[in-house]
Amino acid sequence: MALRSAPFLLLVLVEVALRENCCFGASSHSMKYFYAAVSEPSQGLPQFVVQGYVDGQLFVHYDSNSRKVQPRVSWIEKYVGKEDPQFWDRGTQIIRGDEELFRDSLEILRSRYNQSGGLHTWQRMYGCELQANGSKGGFMQYGYDGRTFITFDKETLSWVAPDPLAEITQRKWDGIPGVNQGKKSYLEEICIEWLETYLSYGKETLLRTEPPGVTVRGKTEVEDGMETHICRLDGFYPREIDASWTRDGEVWLEETFHGSVAPNADGTYHYWLSIRIDPKERGRYRCHVEHDGLQKPLDLDLEGERLQGGKGWALWQAGRWWERNLAPDVSRCEHT
Questions:
Q1: Where does the record place the Ig-like domain (predicted)?
Q2: Cα gap 45→100, rounded to integer Å
């Protein structure tokens, strides 16, 4: 499948991968890397790009134009430069080797799919996650032209190939003694060790807590007399948050909608959820919010405007919520 916009594709792949591993509720920490090679580089689009993220924050970057691994946050630059002056040079040499492998692999796949030209991409995504309860997770997968090509199953120490043409790669990789065990060890041990190291470097940023500012507002729909109420949460960190509508103290999913947890320019996050109810039952509903920045859960009723929280309230006062979100119309949002 030829792709018209590789820069857009790379952004989408990164965004989806970051979001699909985000859990609601208990806090977790993650480190993820994204590699992408394109067959037809252009202005503003390097042939090869690598980006590394800790807790969704871009901290290292490499591309085939600069050919250098470079820091993207002050905390990694400060601590690594002091404790390991050769860190950047060593990482640059490793990724330059990966760059050559990715270019070769891209040509092999174009030949395998009988593609003589056009824009094509070869991607790798891998990383690990550390949950608050101490449990660990990890993943590694490759994609070709935006589709999953092959995925590593660290429990069976084997590769899974959803595409028949990927079975050639699967047999080759599974046939190399010891390599799959090494990948499992990296994902479950070495990756976690690096994640913990980076968390210690960036603890003032990555381990901080900012409580959400929460507001509930409603409007009556004239046609049928029903009401739509929107609970907005803003200015919170970390990203993990547990928010739901309750009726008589129980989670209520009927006629509910919600957005995605999305970043603010200052590194915090925002989120919203809505509910459609009979106004006669207004007193039965609450917006329930749990977050690490809150000393105890919040339960906001629907009787008029209510606001709580620290930084989020200041953001609301400044009008920044509406500038970013333009008062979302819940009728057009995804129902999940």
A1: 211-301
A2: 17
